[in-house]
Amino acid sequence: MLDVRRLRLLRELAHRGTIAAVAEALAFTPSAVSQQLAVLEREAGVPLLERTGRRVTLTPAGHQLVEHAEAVLERLERAAAELADARRGLAGPLRIGTFPSAGRVIIPAALALLAREHPRLEPMVAEIDPAGVADALRAGELDVALVHDYDFVPSASDAGLDTEPLLEEPMYLASPASPPDSWGGGKAGGAGGPDQDQGQDQDPVGRWSEAPWILAMPGTMCHAMATRACQAAGFSPRVRHHIDDFSTVLALVTIGQGVALIPELGAGDPPPGVVLTRLAMRRRTRIAFRRGAGAHPAVAAFAGSLRAATGG
């Protein structure tokens, strides 16, 4: 009989690529992971791993077994959801992941609604970049999370996860009202909030090709989005600052330190001196959870609170 815990280790190796990464994510030692995978190979009766020097890759049989593991783990999530639904009332921790702008604008209202309906539920919120959500959900570090993608950065599919749409928002180019002439962008007009559709350029991103740019930290989806948007406009951005917090980004734009791309959730209260030009680009936010866990009453209750908080 194949052991579910060992199947989970094999599934994580398929996603994370190295035994060391699996061990770090699941709080094992690398030697313990290797030993458990060796036992799984004996249980399976066929080689599941190929070892070349210090590298380990899955054999075709290993990949096939991972597909079965995904199905088994999904069924276990569904079973846990049904058992939770049979209990009276929701109680205990619910580990929630969010990106910062949703954490500031959406999460507080959703948690207030959730507490009103389920006072014994204990939400525990952690900020996380959407790029790390899949690993955190599979590892059990999170139960549910908010993720986003952009027109230029679609979300990658993951066999172990499901998502549901929550909201869609426009993107804005944030620029100073009086940019230096050396930037080549010209005057951008008066400052305005995100409800004001400033600028009618055919290429509102390309007009700032000579300006310094403020991007998120490398490795994040926001960084990839801004980089690809600039490349689509025909240039590579000259990055001056790497900042994840949109309030800080807007403060730097105000004093002429650069231009940036900001989603609507991050541009709700811009400081004076910032011009927000609405773009055709969109950001989409989704609710993510382990496949099979969408019916869990705690996850479903939180998803319902999120939709109520966003008017969905």
UniProtKB/TrEMBL annotation:
UniProt lists compositionally biased (Low complexity) regions at 194-206
Has keyword Transcription?
A: yes
Molecular function terms, GO-annotated = DNA binding; DNA-binding transcription factor activity
Q: Which GO terms describe its cellular component?
A: protein-DNA complex
Give start and end of each HTH lysR-type domain.
Answer: 2-59
Keyword Transferase found: no
The record ties this protein, via Gene3D superfamilies, to:
Periplasmic binding protein-like II, Winged helix-like DNA-binding domain superfamily/Winged helix DNA-binding domain
| Record's protein name | DNA-binding transcriptional LysR family regulator
Query: Which species is the source of this protein?
Result: Allostreptomyces psammosilenae
